[in-house]
Amino acid sequence: MSTTTLEQSASGPPGDGETTEADLARARKEQIGRVVAIFVMPFLMVGMMITGYLFAMHAPAPHNMPIAVAGTSQQVEQFARWLEDADPDAVDVRIVATDEQARDLVFDREVAGAVSLSDTGSATLYTAGAAGASQSSTVTGLVAPHVIGQGLDLVTEDLAPLPGHDTAGLAAMFMATGLMLAGYMPWSITLSNSPELLRKRRAIPLLAGWSALIAALVWFVADPVLGAVEGHTAAVLGISWLAVFAVGSVQFFLTRIFGPMAVLVGMLFVMVLGVPASNMGMSIYTLPSMYVKLHSFLPTAATGEALRSVLYFDGVGLGSHILVMVIGAVLALAAVFGIDAIKRKRNPDARDPEITVASLTAGPRPQRNWVRYVTLAAFPLAMVVMMFSIMLGAMYQPAPREMPVTVVAATEDVAEQAVAGLEQNMDGLFDFTASASVDEARAAVQDRSVVAAYVLPSADSPTATLIANQSAGMSQQQVVSMTFQQVAAGQQVPLTIEDIAPLPGSDTMGTVAMYVAMGWIMSGFMLAVVGNSAAPAAMRLKSLLPIAAGFSVFMSLVVWVIASPLTGAVDGHVLQLFGTGVLAIFTTSMFATFLTRLFGMLAVVPAVAVLMFLGVPASNGAMSIFMSPEIFRVLHDILPMPAAVESVRSIMYFGADNVGGHLVTFVIWGVVSLALVAAVDLIRSRKSAQEAEI
C-alpha cells in the first residue's frame, strides 16, 4: 500500500491537524492486521470444521453400543457372554426379561438393537431403521454372526422401517441442519452491518418472526414440494420454530460476548460438534465416546431427534428434546438481559457497536434502512433455502439410476442374453454392457468406467463372481453387492465378491476424500469473502495474486496436516495432495473473487451454491452420482468440488491414475475466473477515470 493511502487512512477530518508519524504507524499496523485476518479467519473456520469431521467420522467403529438380550436366564447369560467376549469395547449388553421389553427398548431408542432368544432354536433381531440406517446395519453386523455361529435360525424385524418417501432417512437430518444454519448465521452479519437491530426490544421480536418464516419454508420445501415429509404439519412447524429461536437466542448471547467472532463459536457447537453428535447421519455409538455425552444437550441433536421422534416414532421421547431447546433459549435470553444490565451500569451512554461491514453488496451502503434490512435478511434466507432444498432434493431418495455394470460370460452372446434378462427386471436401474473378457471387465472396474462386473458361472467355475471397487464409492459398492447377491440367489449359484480396492482402516466409510476436498474448496472461497470485507485494498489484482498464492500454499499444508498426522485419516501422498490442494484453493479463490467483485459480501450465496450445495451432491463423495438426479452426473464433470474429490481419491487409492483430467478442470476454472476478475477491474477503472474527467 502506498504512503499516500496510508496518510489518507490515518488522517482525520479537515482541520484535525497534520498527520503524525504515530498516525502513519497505526495505519500500517491496521493494514497489516487486516491482511493477517485474511489468513487467520479461514484457518480457524476451515481448520475447525475439517478437524472436527475427520476426527469424528473418518473411521467409525462400534463403541459401547447398547444391545438388549431377552430369553430364558441360561440362554441370555450365555449369549450375552459370547457377544461381549467377541469385542468387549463394541457392545454394552443389557439383559431384559421379556421379548416385549426388548421391543419397547428398541422402539424408544434406548438401545440400538435387541435379540430375543426362543426355546425353538431361533433368535429374532430387532432393529429400528428410522433410528438410523447405519446403526441398524452395525447392529446386524455385530449380532448376526453370533446367532448363526451358535446354530440358531436368525429372524430379523425392523420395528420402525423408513417410509417410501424417505428411503435414506435423511429428511430429519437436512431439516435440522437447515434450521441450525438459520439460527446461528444471521446475528454475526447483523452485528457487522446493522448493529442497531441487536437491541433487545428489536432483536427478540425479529428472532421470533424469523423463526416462523424459516419454519414455514423448511416445512414447505420438505412436504409439499419434495414430499420427503408426509403429515405432522403442526409438530414439524412447532419444532422448527423452537429450534431456530433457541439457537438464535444462544447466538444472540454469544454476540454479546464474542462480537463478530461469535460465528466461529456458534459453528463449533452447532456444526463441528453438533453434526457428528446429532445421531442423524451416523450412529453416535460408532464415534468417539465424547459424542454420546454431547448428544444429550447440543441443539443439532435435540432438533434432529425431535423431528425423528415425530416423523417415525409417534412422538416417543419428544419431551426431553423439546426441554433441551427451551432451557437453552431461556438461559441465553436471561444471560443477555444480565450482561446488558451490567454494561448499562458501567457505561450508561454506551452506543451501538461499530459498523464493520458497511454494505453487503459491491456498491455503497444503502441510504434507506428498509433496503439494507431486506438485503440483510435475504443473505441468510437464500443460504438456508438453497442448502436445504438442493441437498435434500439430491439425496433423500437415493436409488441406482443407470449405474454402469458389465456382465461377463464365456462368450459375448451368452453375456448379451444375460443382460437382456437382467434389464427386464431392473429397467433403468443399471446400464448393463456385455463382455467375454474378465480381464477387460476388471480393468474397467479399476479405472472406474464401470461400477462393478458380474461374472457368470462357467464350466470351469460354477460360482458367480462380483468384481467390485469399494474405494471408488462405498454407497455404490453396497448397492451392487446387495443387488447381485439377490441375482445369484435367484440363479441358485453361490456368489464370490472380489473387491479390487478395499478401503483401509483409516477410511472405513470412504468419505475422507470428500472432507479433504471440502477443506480445499472452503479455503478458497473464504479467502475471497474475508479479504473483501477485512482488507478490500489488498484484494486489488496486483496484491491479490501473491496473497492468494501464499494463502493456497499455507492452507493446503494445513489441510494435509489435519488429515494425516493430526487425525490419521490419510497415510502419505504428501507432495501429490499438497500440490493438488494448492491448485484447487487458488482456483476456488479466483472464482470467489470474481463473484465478490460483482456482489460484495452477497457473493457468499452464489459461491457456496456452486461450490458446495451443488458440488457436494455432484462430487461422488458421500453418495454415488449414479444414485443422484441426472443433473448431478453432468455437474460431476464440470464443478471444482467433484474434481477435488476425485483427485484425492485417485491419489490415495489408485496411483493418481486420472488426476490429470481433474487438474485441467481446475486450470480452466482458475484461468477463466482470473480473466473475469481482470476484466471487471479494467471496466471499473475506465469508468472511474471517465467520471473523474467529467
Summary, kept brief:
The protein is of the alpha/beta class.
The helix content, as a percent range, equals: 55-70%
End-to-end Cα distance, whole Å, is 27 Å
Largest sheet properties = 5 strands, mixed
Total number of strands: 10
The chain-level mean pLDDT equals: 90
Estimated radius of gyration: 28 Å
Low-confidence stretches: 1-17
Q: Tell me, what's the shape?
A: globular
- The side-by-side strand order for the widest beta sheet comes to 2-1-3-4-5
Figure out the total of helices.
25
Strand content: 5-15%
Structural class: alpha/beta
Element layout with pairings:
Blueprint: H1 3-10, H2 21-57, E1 65-70, H3 73-86, E2 91-96, H4 99-107, E3 113-117, E4 122-127, H5 133-149, E5 153-158, H6 171-193, H7 200-225, H8 233-258, H9 262-272, H10 274-277, H11 290-294, H12 299-312, H13 318-346, H14 369-395, E6 403-408, H15 412-425, E7 430-435, H16 438-446, E8 452-455, E9 464-468, H17 474-490, E10 495-499, H18 512-534, H19 541-566, H20 574-599, H21 604-613, H22 615-618, H23 630-636, H24 640-653, H25 659-693
Parallel strand pairs: 1-2, 1-3, 4-5, 6-7, 6-8, 9-10
Antiparallel strand pairs: 3-4, 8-9
Helix pairs in contact: 1-2, 2-9, 2-18, 2-19, 6-7, 6-8, 6-9, 6-12, 6-14, 7-8, 7-14, 8-9, 8-12, 8-13, 12-13, 14-21, 18-19, 18-20, 18-21, 18-24, 19-20, 20-21, 20-24, 20-25, 24-25
